[in-house]
Design a protein that fits this description.
Helices cover 76% and strands 3% of the residues. It has a two-stranded antiparallel sheet.
Length: 266
């Protein structure tokens, strides 16, 4: 069932990334609404319409603004949505920390992915590379952990993950980086491999963060939308962290070389 679900969803995702523009944005908008429902279930004590509406509505506004190139306005809208949520929770005397996690967790990756993909020169290659990196990490970590085993990485948060799995995921990401660099003829392969290794660690942090939220909520999966996989968050928990990390890296690179667009690799 997991394989069938992946075979159905992967072409849709890759096709939207390939087309870019509004096709990519519409995919992210749909995912954002579904993710908002799951995040509300994990952090707000339920994923009902009232608890989901503000987060999902803010996400749609953010996607729309980022899609027309208004990245700064999208960030401002995200901040405004968070401020309104904090004010509302203060009024009802609810804890503030769930909103402080939920809004950045959902909105920053959306803005990052749209901004990265929008670059006319390398946006397509960058997003494909990020997807391939995350998939390679998950696959290599799974097989390394399964066949090598060994000490657990963080048993209280995710009992099945091992140090061998982490190393396997890092090696998988480095191989993808080297192949990508050689394929497109850009950047230094070994240096990009080191960047990929750092992103692999970040991907695992994202995975653990979602696992911690699920453990706190007392659920195994964030949802039941994808047969054999769980919810949307269960599939993109690593990508949300990697996307933000890659966008920050691109911003740092651009500050040194403004003409480089969203080029991640040096």
């Amino acid at each position: 069932m997991r394989i069938v679900s992946a075979l159905v969803l992967a072409p849709v995702v890759l096709g939207a990334v390939w087309l870019g523009g509004w096709a990519f944005s519409l995919l992210l908008a749909l995912a954002a609404v579904l993710m908002a429902h799951e995040i509300a279930g994990l952090l707000f004590g339920g994923g009902g319409p009232r608890r989901t509406a503000l987060l999902a509505g803010t996400a749609l506004v953010v996607v729309a603004l980022a899609s027309v190139g208004l990245t700064a306005a999208a960030l401002a809208a995200a901040a405004a949505g968070l401020a309104f949520a904090l004010a509302a929770r203060s009024w009802t005397r609810d804890e503030l920390w769930p909103a402080l996690i939920a809004y950045p967790y959902l909105l920053l990756p959306l803005i990052s992915l749209i901004w990265l993909r929008a670059d006319s020169a390398l946006g397509l290659a960058v997003v494909f590379w990020l997807l391939a990196t995350v998939w390679a990490i998950d696959i290599c970590a799974y097989f390394a952990g399964r066949f090598i085993g060994g000490p657990k990485l963080a048993p209280r948060i995710s009992p099945k993950k091992t140090w061998a799995g982490l190393v396997g995921g890092i090696l998988g990401a480095m191989i993808v980086a080297i192949v990508t660099s050689l394929w497109i003829g850009e950047g230094a392969p070994l240096l990009l491999a080191l960047i990929a290794a750092a992103l692999a660690v970040l991907e695992q942090v994202g995975d653990f963060a979602e696992s911690a939220l699920k453990r706190r909520a007392g659920v195994k999966d964030s949802g039941t939308l994808i047969p054999g996989h769980g919810g949307i968050l269960d599939r993109v928990d690593g990508l949300v962290a990697v996307a933000v990390g890659a966008a920050i890296l691109a911003l740092i690179h651009n500050s040194a070389e403004p003409a480089a667009g969203v080029l991640i690799w040096p």
